Amino acid sequence: MRQSAVFVALSALGLVAAQSNFTVDPNTIEPTKRTEWCNAQFNTCGILCGGVTKANTCTPTDLKFVCTCSNGTAPGLEYYIQSMPTLLCQQAFSECIDDNIGNSQGQGKCTTDIKNRCGTLDPAKAEIGGGGGGGSSSTSAAPSGTPAATTGGEAAASTTARAGAMPTAIGNGIAAVAAGVLAAALL
């Protein structure tokens, strides 16, 4: 019975966290801005991995990136400002607003479907939980013009990204409920 409750709670968490996709064409973004975004992505990955990454690359030409902490995990970049998923989400929102000039209903949908799902957390305030420790790893080089490679266990994302994070208050509430159910099941 307890295992069923845990499964249901965690399944609900996964269902709510599922987001729609959107695509941003990197060629519509100025090269200088793409470089700035890659630098922000690189810095955010480093912060969220406690300063020690296994892979941390970003390619300004196509905005593809890899962010893997030294312990092999990938931080939830979509929840944080100054990460590529959030920057792409904000760009998609801006494009949606531009595509719906004079259409208040369309612009409202841009807000609910895209903007409200863009990351809002500050990576500088994140609690780093072991992402930077352990293993024999080193910090990766800064973003380069070479394509980001993906190997086993590394997270790669491109200009097709999930529509960011679920709204923080909802996400935190669902996570708290799931954690409570899990704790109750362990008793």
UniProtKB/TrEMBL annotation:
Glycosyltransferase listed as a keyword: no
Lineage: Eukaryota, Fungi, Dikarya, Ascomycota, Pezizomycotina
Keywords of the record: Signal
InterPro entries for this protein: DUF7707
Name recorded for this polypeptide: DUF7707 domain-containing protein
Region (Disordered): 129-155
Residues of the DUF7707 domain: 23-123
UniProt signal peptide: 1-18
Compositional bias (Low complexity): 137-155
